[in-house]
């Protein structure tokens, strides 16, 4: 498998070929996604909830992101990987944003970074990161790092006025130099309007079928994360149930002394060595 580039993604858009986008936070998951032919992997700050057990994404640090991006890169060396910029790793200044983006590229070998928001300050951050030589993906709509401002985890752009603002934000983000935009949690009509007016790939998560590609949180779509399931998620498996059943069966086997089975799950020792072992133990005793 050859790693795709932004040129490949633009060509896919021209051919009306959908871009497959998933999150991953660890080596094994990334390895399986690359094997499945996923085009693009996001190491999202959603790892805070999915992997680290936080209630929100806010506690995730740059060190967390670097460590998990490194693991994903090792698992998917030939896949285009995007590292999320965690909360307060870019909000303070353009200089801070460039430094944080640089860490993800230099220390974790990501191909691009993603940041949330489409206001003037965020546009400045996108320009600065882009000018430093790092590819940037924008993120608008339902932006978890702006929960207080958008009124919680709910769909955005449901009024015509709000929808127009999102379309305008997308245009400004493109002008600022982003190579792509993730649109989250908006009505299908809004996702379509943004996509039709864009000159860069538009990826959607809960933004309808008209975007150039689709993203899902992998733990949602395989049934691993059951704390909350967004409306836009389709479950392709119930891995969580499979794991619970396996752990339960293992616990039962251990308690009933059915595992390990001698001769099946154990290493052998010749009878001669066993006799010598017993003799030596008697001498020690």
UniProtKB/TrEMBL annotation:
Q: Where in the cell is it found?
A: Cytoplasm
Task: Specify the domain of life of the species encoding this protein.
Answer: Bacteria
Q: Which CDD domains match?
A: KPHMT-like
Q: Name one Pfam family in it.
A: Pantoate_transf
Q: What cofactors does this protein use? A: Mg(2+)
Q: What pathway is this protein said to act in by its record?
A: Cofactor biosynthesis; (R)-pantothenate biosynthesis; (R)-pantoate from 3-methyl-2-oxobutanoate: step 1/2
Q: Which GO terms describe its cellular component?
A: cytoplasm
Q: What class of enzyme is it?
A: transferase
Q: Which UniProt keywords apply?
A: Cytoplasm, Magnesium, Metal-binding, Methyltransferase, Pantothenate biosynthesis, Transferase
Provide a GO biological process annotation: methylation
Q: Name one GO molecular function term.
A: methyltransferase activity
Binding site residues for 3-methyl-2-oxobutanoate: 45-46, 84, 114
Q: According to its UniProt record, which reaction does this protein catalyse?
A: (6R)-5,10-methylene-5,6,7,8-tetrahydrofolate + 3-methyl-2-oxobutanoate + H2O = 2-dehydropantoate + (6S)-5,6,7,8-tetrahydrofolate
InterPro entries for the chain: Pantoate_hydroxy_MeTrfase, Pyrv/PenolPyrv_kinase-like_dom, Pyrv_kinase-like_dom_sf
What functional role does this protein have?
Catalyzes the reversible reaction in which hydroxymethyl group from 5,10-methylenetetrahydrofolate is transferred onto alpha-ketoisovalerate to form ketopantoate.
Q: Return the similarity comment.
A: Belongs to the PanB family.
This protein is called: 3-methyl-2-oxobutanoate hydroxymethyltransferase
Q: Which organism is it from?
A: Desulfotruncus arcticus DSM 17038
């Amino acid at each position: 498998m050859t790693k795709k580039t932004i040129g490949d993604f633009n060509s896919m858009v021209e051919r009306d070929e959908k871009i497959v986008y998933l999150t991953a936070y660890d080596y094994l998951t990334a390895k399986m996604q690359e094997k499945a032919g996923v085009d693009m992997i996001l190491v999202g700050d959603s790892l805070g909830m999915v992997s680290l057990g936080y209630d929100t994404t806010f506690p995730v640090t740059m060190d967390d992101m670097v460590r998990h991006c490194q693991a994903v890169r090792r698992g998917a060396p030939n896949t285009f990987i995007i590292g999320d910029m965690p909360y307060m790793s870019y909000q303070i200044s353009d200089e801070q944003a460039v430094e944080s983006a640089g860490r993800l590229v230099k220390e974790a070998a990501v191909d691009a970074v993603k940041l949330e928001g489409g206001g003037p300050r965020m546009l400045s951050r996108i320009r600065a990161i882009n000018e430093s030589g790092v590819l940037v993906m924008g993120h608008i709509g339902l932006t978890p790092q702006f929960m207080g401002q958008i009124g919680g985890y709910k769909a955005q752009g449901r009024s015509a006025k709000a929808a127009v603002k999102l379309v305008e934000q997308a245009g400004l983000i493109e002008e600022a130099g982003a190579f792509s935009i993730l649109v989250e949690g908006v009505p299908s009509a809004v996702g379509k309007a943004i996509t039709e007016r864009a000159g860069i790939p538009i990826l959607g998560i809960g933004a309808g079928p008209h975007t150039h590609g689709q993203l899902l949180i992998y733990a949602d779509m395989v049934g691993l994360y059951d704390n909350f399931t967004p409306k836009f998620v389709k479950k392709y498996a119930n891995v969580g149930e499979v794991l619970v059943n396996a752990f339960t069966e293992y616990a039962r086997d251990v308690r009933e002394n059915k595992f390990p089975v001698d001769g099946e799950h154990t290493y052998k020792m010749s009878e001669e060595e066993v006799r010598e072992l017993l003799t030596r133990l008697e001498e020690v005793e």
